[in-house]
Structures are given as structure tokens and as C-alpha cells.
Amino acid sequence: MPKESFFDDEDYQDSLVTLLCRDQKALNDCGLLLSPDDFKPLPGSHNGQVRWVIAELALEHYRRYHEPVGRLLRAEVLTHAQNVGFGERQIKDLRKYCDTVINANGITPCPEAITEKIITFKREKQKAAALTELSELQASGDLSDEKWYEISQRVLGSGVNTLQTTDYLGTMAQRVERRRLNSRRVRKPWTLIDPLDSIIEGIGPKELGLILAPYKRGKSLMLQWLAVAYVLQHLNVLYITLENPQSSVEDRLDSITTAIPIKALNEYPGTVSQRFKRFRGMVKRKLKIYDGTQGGVSVPMMEQILTAERNQGFLADALIVDYDDEIAATRKQKDRRFEFSDIYRDLRQLMARMNLIGWTAAQTQRDTENLKILSGDRAAEDISKIRKVTLAIGLGKGDWLDGESIYLWVAAANNDKQHVGCHIVPDRKRMLIYDREATALATKRYTKDAEE
């Protein structure tokens, strides 16, 4: 490697390692172009040895499982340290560097600038090596058309991850290890709605969830609850509001996080500030809001927003879009249901491409306001959207508390039980789709009544 390369800049290497540990797009762009040797420490470098170890583990994890190591990094590092026989001081240094990489609120600003430098540098280096090889073969008389094509394709196709395949029959050991590692972390965050979490598992990265409900049942409240629940579980959330203005969303979130009725927020500013400060102290990540109520927000535009935030150092773990009827189609079609088909396909692909947990909401058909069970075929416009999501939950009219409760019905689930449900009790004054105490009291009361 030439001297005075940007690879010799320790700040650049720290930024690059952070991307490799946390950012799916950076790995897709340059993961296969890099090798652990690129991170070999220079004499006198600070954190050089630990950076080298962590970069090697991050690249190895990506090549095995095609995703960032993320919060598994600490477990991977400790396992590696034990296998290699690192000393106590080395393990302490590794843990400290892990915390710096994983627990930061954001990633490095301008990740595109970092990955572009790598791609350009590696491609130029490969071209130079290919020219040398071609010259040597030409001089020896061994340069055939087949060899020329092979070398050209090797250079032109380097780093094109979309063409990478996996040998299913030869990778059982990797799958066993992947499942073992996944069992050591919460890949799929809770909804923090206890009755629901007790019957099904939530969704994880690269998956899309859907909330189904009739008009004014609580679609937005459910999505806002999930946003707060995810932030409490140390996930970065981007909330795109397409129906309610940002001020309304902010007031609802303030009511949720402070437990103060939304109409009383202006009456008790000191209490609101004090309780919000306490809430902020529990949160290790960020919740950002994009106001798209002006219209024209399509799925490609959402990706632009995500990329712009990523370039500012904010790496979203979850994308919540309120709600699907306001998403602009990328191409106009004669029937709205065909546009929905494109929208949901694009959303699902966006979650996979950027390693996101995704949620949106959809309106149900007319005359569904009094239904307890909202099944997938009750989705308005296009029921095929149910087939394109990992998990769909209906918000039906519960039969507790004279219809004031909500019945959560698992209309579809790819990886868990479906066609099961539970009652919850909301507190609309405090913008809570789920009031834990009121739900517990109602559950006790109606369970006792049923037993009697």
C-alpha cells in the first residue's frame, strides 16, 4: 500500500470501522473490496491493534451473514479474545473500543465520501495489478482471449455484491453459528404492549409491519407508541408523518413520554419539561421526525431522506411511515391498488436494502368500525399488501368496557402464530394506545367474569 494513503489516517480508519460494524449500505458498497490487512496498525498508532481485530471481525461477520455485526460485536470480540488468549489489558481495550463504535448516537458524517475513496482506491489498485499481469502474459505469449476476458471481468466485477451467491449445502456451520449468535441478542424489539408481546414476536431488520384499522381507531397512536418503544430499546427511529402535521405529532409524543394529557401540556410546562428530561435520561438513541404533509413523498424520496440523515451521522434502525394512503406512487397507474402494489414492494425492498425495521398503517374497508376481528381481507384498496408484509396487526373494536377497549388481531405473520388476538385498553387523553394499568385491571375483571 502506498505511503501517505488515506488508509494511514487513524480518524479515517475509526470512521470506516464504525461503518463496517453498523451500516448495511457501506458494507454493500465496499465490504467485499476490503480485507483485514487494510487495517494493519502502523508503528506508534493509537488503538491500532484493537481496530485491526474489530475490523477483521466485522468483515468476517458480513461475509458470513450478509449483515452488519451491530450489537453482536461485543460478544464476537470476547469470544475471539478467549480463543486467541488475549490478556486482561487487551480485552479491556477491546471492550472500550467496542463501546465507542456501538454506543455512539450516530455514525460518522459523510459516509459516502469514505466509501467512495475506498472504491476508487481499490479499483485503481486492481487495474494496475491487472495491467501488470496482462503485460507479463503478453510477454510470455500466454495471453489468450479467454485469459484477457477473465482478468477484465475480475476487475470490472469486483465488489459487485448483488451478484454474490451463497452455497446453501455447504454453509450449515455458518447457519448454526448465526442462530447461536442471534439467540444472544434481541434482534426483534418488543412492542412494549405486554398482551401482544406474550403471544407473538415482533419484526426485525429487513422486515415490514402493517397496522390495520378503520377511521380514527388509533393507527397513528399505535405507530407513535412503537416509535417511543423502539427508542426506549436503544434504536434510532425516523418517523415520517404524511397526514398529521409535525406539531401535532410532537404534542402526542410529549403526552406519551410525560404521561400528561395532551390538553394539559400547555398548563403545566414545568412538569412537562421535568418529566421529559427524565425520559431523555433513559434514552440512548434518537427519534427524528420528517413532516411530509405537503405531499409528494414517495418511497425513493424516503430513501433520499434516510441517506441525507446518514450523511449527517444519523443511522436509522427503524422507519415508521404514517400512513400508506398518503405515500406518493413512483408511477401513475389507472387503478390505485396497482400503485399500492408498487409502494409496498418498494417499501419492503427499502427495508432490506438499508437493514431497517419498517412500519406503516392502512385503512380498512367501509363498515368495519364495529368489527372485533380485522382480518387481512378487510384492507381497503388492495389486500395484496398483506402478502407483502411480515406482520399485520388489526385494531378491532374490543368488547370490554362497553366497546372502549381495542382488540389486537394478528391478521398475518410470516414467522409466528397468526389469527390470535388480545384486548388492550387505551388512554386517549394521554395519547396512549396501551394503558398498562387499565389493561391489567380490565383483564383481571373480565377473566374473573368469564370464569364465573
Please characterize this protein's 3D structure.
The chain is α/β, with parallel strands linked by helices and 452 residues long. It has 2 domains: 1-185; 194-451, P-loop containing nucleotide triphosphate hydrolases (Rossmann fold, 3-Layer(aba) Sandwich), CATH 3.40.50.300. The chain is built from 15 helices and 8 strands. It has helices at 10-22, 24-30, 48-65, 73-84, 88-102, 111-140, 145-156, 172-182, 194-197, 219-232, 246-258, 269-282, 299-311, 336-354, 436-451; strands at residues 207-213, 237-241, 287-291, 318-322, 357-363, 391-397, 406-413, 421-424. Strands 3-2-4-5-1-6-7-8 form an 8-stranded mixed sheet, with helices on both faces. Helix 3 packs across helix 5 and helix 6 runs antiparallel to helix 7 (145-156). The longest helix has 30 residues, at 111-140. The radius of gyration is 26 Å and the shape is globular. Residues 159-163 have low confidence and may be disordered.
Can you give keywords for this protein?
2 domains; eight-stranded mixed beta sheet; globular
Largest sheet: 8 strands, mixed
| CATH architecture designation of the largest domain | 3-Layer(aba) Sandwich
Rg (CA only): 26 Å
Percentage of residues assigned to helices: 40-55%
CATH topology heading of the largest domain: Rossmann fold
CATH superfamily of the largest domain: P-loop containing nucleotide triphosphate hydrolases
Task: Map the helices and strands.
Elements: H1 10-22, H2 24-30, H3 48-65, H4 73-84, H5 88-102, H6 111-140, H7 145-156, H8 172-182, H9 194-197, E1 207-213, H10 219-232, E2 237-241, H11 246-258, H12 269-282, E3 287-291, H13 299-311, E4 318-322, H14 336-354, E5 357-363, E6 391-397, E7 406-413, E8 421-424, H15 436-451
Parallel strand pairs: 1-5, 1-6, 2-3, 2-4, 4-5
Antiparallel strand pairs: 6-7, 7-8
Helix pairs in contact: 1-3, 3-5, 4-5, 6-7, 10-11, 11-12
